[in-house]
Amino acid sequence: MTTSTRGASAPAVLVLEDGRTFRGRAYGAVGETFGEAVFSTGMTGYQETLTDPSYHRQVVVMTAPHIGNTGVNDEDPESKRIWVSGYVVRDPARTPSNWRSCRSLDEELTAQGVVGISGIDTRALTRHLRERGAMRVGIFSGAAVADEATLLAKVRAAPEMKGADLSGEVATVETYVVPAIGTKKFTVAAIDLGIKGMTPHRMAERGIEVHVLPATATAEDIYAVGPDGVFFSNGPGDPATADHPVSLMRAVLERSTPLFGICFGNQILGRALGFGTFKLKYGHRGINQPVQDRTTGKVEVTAHNHGFAVDAPLDAPSDTPFGRAEVSHVCLNDNVVEGLRLLDRPAFSVQYHPEAAAGPHDAAYLFDRFVSLMEGQRA
After folding, report:
1. Percent of the chain with pLDDT strictly greater than 90
2. Is 102 a catalytic site residue?
3. Which of 35, 164, 325, 378 is most buried, judging by how many CB atoms fall within 10 Å of its CB?
4. Is the CB of residue 297 less than 8 Å from the CB of residue 328?
5. The pTM is what?
């Protein structure tokens, strides 16, 4: 990505790898950027989306037409920086209006060098991605705008998401600790594959001291903190490349330590159990995805960001090297696997985001389920 200073009046063009183009105006930094074009259906929570490390190397198209109303504050980011490669909106707010706002979204994108585009038909773009699938894209503005053939060649030269190993690019390089809120009840080792800040906070609220470890951590590193449980976080990239996290999870499963994984962590558990993974046509993103917990029959409205899924049988438990496993959650839109559960060891995972930042709180019970596993193991 190359960027220059802010220039809201500069012309901009978005070019998809299949040759379709959209012309608009620069939003945020001016220059050029590349990534995988994906769409998010959330009407709120754009600040949390931008700072979610799972969106690394993705250009996010917001389906809601009006973005930036509440500006940007210093309390809601999910990490220390914006991770999206580019940002696409239809009608950016001219002036933010919220008592917590510190600056406009346009100013924040510019300050962090994020190239965006506004004034295009995001509904048409979203429909195109639903029909053709997520694909590589480039946004060009200001001096970076050139003839379409040149821009298309640049887009097609950019790396694809399939086969991308990205978790190491977003994870912490040093272990840090999030202390329990109130009385400490448990210690959890959390493997950072692209963790959001709200996730350890949700555990801390339940009396858990969370040791957040780098993606390169070893089994010895995990057990050096004396964990009552182990957590594998969300993160970007293709799970087929995540051989080290898979090996690490198998080491945890062998010891029967209570284990909880979300999003990328769900895909890691799938691979650790011997299931395959595959790339979805356009993925699940946004804060309104219906998922059924098959263990209770309850339907939850959930927050998602994943372009890959686990390939596991839906109709019956499967035999794995760690005992029987079953699909515990399923998406009601398309029957994609949204959760796994071991029946003979204390381990489970979900494909979505129970920390709900931003989004609904229907799935918060999953952190309580993790606590119950640790209580049961301790007993």
Report:
1. 93
2. no
3. 325
4. no
5. 0.95
